[in-house]
Amino acid sequence: PEWWHGTYAWAGSFVTYLLEQFGLPRFRRFYCRLAEQPVDAAFQAEFGTSIGQAELLWREYLHKQLPAEMRLKALRSALRDILAWTIHDGQYLPVQLAAERLRDEDADHWLGYYGLAYYAFWQGDLERAREHFEQAAHAPKQEQSNLRGLAWFQHGLVCDLLGQRARACECYQRALEYPDGEGTKAYHARARKYLETPYTYEERYQFLREA
To answer: φ and ψ at 141, to 5 degrees?
Structure first.
């Protein structure tokens, strides 16, 4: 389920392939046939091949025509999008899987480490969460986004729970440098609160019970 947004990109890529291979007039005729024929029959009639065979040729085309650098760039972009979506939706196992893949494919980007920290945090492994948050903090590729600010805020929460108050305050201050979110993802007010009073296990347990 975490890959469902990818269907837009895959469909667009396949249509682009058909346009390049058969031309716009034939593609339009195929599209018009759909009003009277099933998809498979219309495809076979206009393009002289089955959808399954065309898919195989499209996959071969992608591997041969797209430069390796372009494929890697597209993969990294897709992984970042998937990871952001799964974090937003609270899909913990997909977060871990996407984060591990992004870290392997783009070790310089902060988001893969944040995904691992996020997963560890909700699993209750605070030491591992702190380690991954620090890796995110030192990654060469950063960005000025709400999600980056939220990550700094959660980094502060973990440090407070571990008794690392000075580092927690540093993280809350960093969080305030980024755009705030909306609704449950807003964190500026809470960051200011915990700059005054440390985040505690009591609050953590209360949040988990309510969640």
So the answer is: -95, 110
Residue 141, SS3 per DSSP: strand
| Whether the predicted model's global pTM rises above the 0.85 cut | no
Largest CA distance in the chain: 71
Q: What is the DSSP string of 23-71?
A: -HHHHHHHHHHTTTS-HHHHHHHHHSS-HHHHHHHHHHHHHHHS-HHHH
The phi and psi torsions of 63 (rounded to 5 degrees) equal -70, -30
The structure tokens 């024929």 sit at 37
Digit-coded pLDDT (tens) for 120-178? 998 999 999 999 999 999 999 999 999 999 999 999 999 999 999 999 999 999 999 99
Q: Is 162 helix (H, G, I), strand (E, B) or coil?
A: coil
Closest by CA position to 141, among listed 95, 101, 108: 108
**Residue from 133, 105, 102 nearest 118 by CA:** 133
* Alpha carbon 177 to chain centroid, angstroms: 22
Token pair of 145 as six digits: 């986004």
Q: Are 62 and 10 in contact (CB under 8 A)?
A: no
pLDDT digit string, tens, across residues 34-87: 999 999 999 999 999 999 999 999 988 887 777 788 878 888 988 898 899 888
| Cα-based distances in Å from 90 to 57, 99, 105, 157 | 37, 13, 23, 18
